[in-house]
Amino acid sequence: MPNENNTLKNSAKLGVEVLEARTVPAAFGPNRGLSIAVGDVIPGVTSYEYVTGTGPGTQALVRVFDQAGILKYQVNPFGDYSGGVFVALGDVNLDGQKEIVVSTAGGTTGRVKVYQFVNNQLRELGGFVPFGPNYVGAVQIATGNVTGDRADEIVVGLSRNGSTVKVFSADPLSSGSVYFETRKIRGFELAYKGGVSIAVGNIDGTENNFPSDPYNYDYEEIMIGKARQEPRIRIVDVQAPASNTRANYFVFDPNIKNADRGITVVAGSTDARRGVEMYVALNLSNVVRVFDPNNGVPYGEFTVPYPTNFGTILNMTINDLDDDVLRIYRGSDLFVVAGDGPDVQIPIIFPGKLSVPAGFNGSRPAP
Fold it and tell me: Which residues of 47-72 are buried (b: 16+ CB within 10 A; e: fewer)?
């Protein structure tokens, strides 16, 4: 498998930019980070919205901003909880509309809730406790069709005490109010207890990559990164109940091991080609490396223009374009925020371009 000794192709580093101060979307005071998702969640609006979750240390809020940076809606999903929340978007009940999936980021029983816009109101559809009432670590979340049943599933991962990843599906008769576990895998070796970062995406460039494979390729794989200790990725196919490992490799130098040198990961098609690119950010660094996840070959790397003391983790998302023209001719965009740190966390947009992944086409602050 590829490792740090691979030669980067199309390697590029972006220069540090001067970012003007913005008020929306932004951090909520010093030492406050963000989680972020981007997509069309408000019915009747053709453009995407920013969905953000507050970091630890303040009342947990999920906020929805339009592209101009105007706050449209907000919800407090977990009462007086102040441990931070993660956000993701997906059509989990197969009604043609994206729902907002929210999870706790530690310090309380790990929970997941699902919200949807109904009659111009943000309404809770349902929720679940994926790892039982005694688990109080963060619940990592991603969404995507990983079983091939058309609807998006909710993929959750431990942030401590192991590397378990589970897949939850909405009961088709419940309209998204009831969820049940459909898959469970261990991301890494049993001795590893550092938790995971997860992403979902279809890694196959063509349907004929594996002609002897009986599966179809209208589904996505789960990308599991080690959140601590070492920068390793494992990619797993869970279309069938018996999971299949598609890849397992280091994405940065394996010799940089220490307790905090894990990774965060996101995936999406930013170059308007079939098959996603995988973006991996090294903790305690503002360097992001871009991979062809199917074979582990890196396209290059770039630096997110945050100060060197921005924090420890970059949170990333890629918008799922509903506009077919943009999807074909431009590709999706990468959005990056700092997950913690002392500075105002202004989302930075790295635009996609036909045949050139996001990260190598410049950047700009949002909105």
Answer: ebbbbbbbbbeeebbbbbbbeeeeeb
